[in-house]
Amino acid sequence: MNKNTKIKNGPRYINPYLGGILLGLLLLATFFIAGRGLSASGAVKLSIVTIVDKIAPSHAMANGYYSKFIPADGSSPLFNWLIFAAIGTFFGGMLSGAIFGRLKKFRIEHAPTVSSRTRIIAAIIGGILFGIGSQFGRGCSSGAALSGTASFSFGGLIVMLLMFGIGYAFAYFFRKLWI
Amino acid sequence: MGPLIPQGYITGQWEFVIALLIGAAFGFLLESSGFSSSRNIAGVFYGYNFVVLRVFFTAMIVAMVGLLYFDYLGWIDMSMVFVLPTFLAPMLLGGFIMGLGFVIGGFCPGTSYTACAIGKLDGFAFLGGFFLGVFLFSEAFPLFEKFYYSGDMGNITIGEVLHVSDRVVAFAFVVIAIAAFYVTWLIEKKVRANRTESKFE
């Protein structure tokens, strides 16, 4: 396929409503099997806990946050549902990318209005904010906003409304990053 | 009957096999819906691409209504389904910070995994930042430990706060979602008329 036809046809994605229905059924199946929903940020939290616990065990135990997630029986925090689900998410994404022809060499995607460098800095800042926010929020878009709200949690709704609401409220100030 | 794992129908290593498969399906759906591209995601804030809203809200109402049917048919014991606890002030703050992170970074954690998986370096940058953010939070935790646990409302549901049943809540979400699908479709048509490109990979 040459470049021109590709632009004309656009990227090959599935219909968003079909994607949403399938994702909803997956979420429902996850509730049915595991009794809880989908998650993404928990795996990173457990990885950080593991790294800190390996490097500085006494520091980790003295900290009220790390110590919450270190199993009392001495097993690794990584031996956890969330870790396996996150590994799966990575490879599932890779499979889809391979099928639809998006699995390519390393590249930086950014709007023409910004440089690659600006995009990378913005992505790092966004990541840091998500890292901090998801801990206060008891989950990110997956665990709190989507799974939380779908299981009727009031806190999940709070996170979802704030996340999207603040995104809109500040969109004007960061428009140069995107349009 | 369900949920299977809390009731002990599935145990041991099988849990992790299932977690891997569920994760893979999740990643596949995120990527194939277009969430490996931050420009698709950010479109929700600028009106040129509402794929995030469509996928997110469709998934949410399908799962909500599905849970109610499973409960009605006696397939799932809802008392064993985890309801995310509510800590009001910290979750308001968390949502606020994530909203900023969303519009600046263009990903959320789950979508950044799939961006990394297909070779997007901005996905790796976001994920690296995410690790750093979790680390910074944890290191600074003693400073705001009290705040972190404040506003504890327990495992409270939306219906309990609003004094309505879960069915009313789900119905309201369905109505709001359908209205949002229609309104954003109109907005998107208008915005796209002035752009050459609105879907990215």
General description of the model:
- The complex is a heterodimer of chains A (179) and B (201).
- The N terminus of chain A is likely disordered.
- In chain A, helix 3 packs across helix 5.
- Chain A is globular.
- Chain A is 64% helix and 0% strand.
- Chain A folds into two domains: 67 residues, no CATH class; 73 residues, no CATH class.
- Chain A is mostly helical and 179 residues long.
- The longest helix of chain B has 27 residues.
- Chain B starts with 13 loop residues before the first helix and ends in a 9-residue tail after the last helix.
- With 201 residues, chain B is an all-alpha fold.
- Chain B is 67% helix and 2% strand.
- Chain B is globular, with a radius of gyration of 19 Å.
- Chain B has two domains: 118 residues, no CATH class; 73 residues, no CATH class.
- In chain B, 52% of the residues are buried.
- In chain B, helix 3 runs antiparallel to helix 9.
- Chains A and B meet through helix 2, helix 3, helix 5, helix 6 and helix 7 of A and helix 1, helix 2, helix 3, strand 1 and helix 4 of B.
